[in-house]
Amino acid sequence: MLTVDYDQLGLRPGMTVLDLGCGEGRHAFEAYRRGGRVVAVDWGRHEVETTKRWLGAIAEAGEAPEGARYEVVRGDLLHLPFPDASVDRVMASEVLEHIPDDATAMREIFRVLKPGGRAVVTVPRYGPERVCWALSDEYHANEGGHIRIYRGDVLRARLSSAGLVPGRSHHAHALHAPFWWLKCAVGVDRDSALVRAYHRLLVWDLTTRPLVTRLAEKVLDPLFGKSFVVYADKPAGAASTGLSAEVFGVVGQRERSTATG
Q: What sequence ranges are listed for the domain Methyltransferase type (predicted)?
């Protein structure tokens, strides 16, 4: 399930792209298949190992084009282990709502981007997320949970404060909003026949991508798509605080896993 539109991100083969807070790698996988030189970053050891394993499987299956590369790094998004102006694209999907100091994370995105580079940030959309918070504390009030809900204009303003220039935006995953409302209503950790039935629908949609659900989401996303997605550029004339450098191989002594596809 992809939240990012790679065409709007402008990802082209050979570009270096960071996937920040990669989770289990869903966006890194697609960037790698498109020929990117992908660096996936997460703090969780399980997430790093899972992403490494699946990227390796993609490489072994020959699903990535010649020249694509990947690296998986365990790192802190507030202190990214990469040089200034070293990457072409940055993806930060469903991660900033977890970070207390989101301003520093945004400044780090600006710092590592090359002038003229582009970032994409996705966060839970204000309306659907507010419903979840109203229905259940379990949904967000836990270790590592969501600590804020962004309004679209607020997220744009914070990205601008970090030096980025927000541009196009869209919404995604309208069919997932009612699923989470149901889970919050019955209890996030409780079993429910209705929740199980809706989950089967989402799995069917994910695995078969039928036209009916694609059309439904296209119509419903602007109304209550669960994710808000914004693309933001680093101005071409932006000054860097240090020298530009190659991102691969500069992680130093930080814990990492590497491979070449």
A: 18-120
Q: State the residue for tokens 């970070």.
A: 99
What's this model's pTM, rounded to 2 decimal places? 0.90
Residue 165, token pair as written in the block? 């220039």
Distance CA 214, CA 127 (A): 22
208: tokens are: 């078969």
What is the Cα gyration radius of the chain? 18
* 243 pLDDT above the threshold of 50: no
> Hey, what domains does the chain have and what are their CATH numbers?
6-124+149-170+228-260 (3.40.50.150)
- What is the rounded distance in angstroms from the CA atom of residue 233 to the CA atom of residue 226? 24
In terms of Cα–Cα distance, which of 226, 256, 259, 261 is closest to 45?
Answer: 256
pLDDT digits (tens, 9 = 90+) for 68-127: 999 999 999 999 999 999 999 999 999 999 999 999 999 999 999 999 999 999 999 999
